[in-house]
Specification:
177 residues, 72% helix
């Protein structure tokens, strides 16, 4: 893969990959790091990327592997010596205001609901959170998620269903309809 092809890959898949990284990590600085690491790894492994295939799925699978490795290393280090993350974990960096909201009250209610959904998704175990992120943030179909995670399609569908039910129950417990 040439530099021009890699540049075209960044243009065609970059926005979806960044959105997925943002959703997966929950913070802008970590998402930017993961995004850059993914494209660095893609440049390193450029011979394996088939531009005629589905490079978006390949890039997302690279991002998932990098993120899993990073979280595994962080957990290992935390067991040895408790290290606190300096990134904003509360989601405060997310764009919170909808410019189309006609009143401040509606904007506030929408922001609270969005934050509640993000908290619910972030509270899910990785086996549910990763497929949800791939499905909603990266707009990947179930078939591609199954291929990326090396799981049967039925397992991915079951995990998405379980995640939706869990999120729904959590939101109802918080008072949302």
């Amino acid at each position: 893969m040439t530099a021009a092809e890699l540049s075209q890959l960044v243009d065609s898949c970059g926005a979806d990959l960044y959105r997925f990284c943002r959703h997966l990590t929950g913070s802008t600085p970590e998402a930017e790091d993961l995004y850059q690491e993914t494209f660095l790894k893609a440049a390193e492994l450029s011979g394996r990327i088939d531009p005629s295939g589905n490079p978006k799925s390949y890039l997302i699978s690279v991002a998932v592997r990098l993120w899993k490795n990073k979280t595994r290393k962080f957990a290992w280090r935390r067991r040895i010596a408790d290290v606190r993350s300096t990134g904003a974990e509360d989601g405060s960096e997310l764009p919170l205001r909808d410019p189309d909201a006609p009143t401040p009250e509606e904007a506030l209610l929408e922001r609270e609901l969005r934050e509640a959904v993000i908290r619910c998704v972030n509270a899910l175990p990785d086996i549910y959170r990763i497929p949800v992120s791939m499905y909603y943030a990266a707009d990947l179909p179930v078939r591609e998620i199954a291929a990326v995670l090396h799981l049967p399609e039925g397992t991915v569908k079951r995990r998405l269903h379980h995640a939706r039910i869990t999120i729904k129950h959590e939101l109802e417990a918080m008072g949302y309809e």
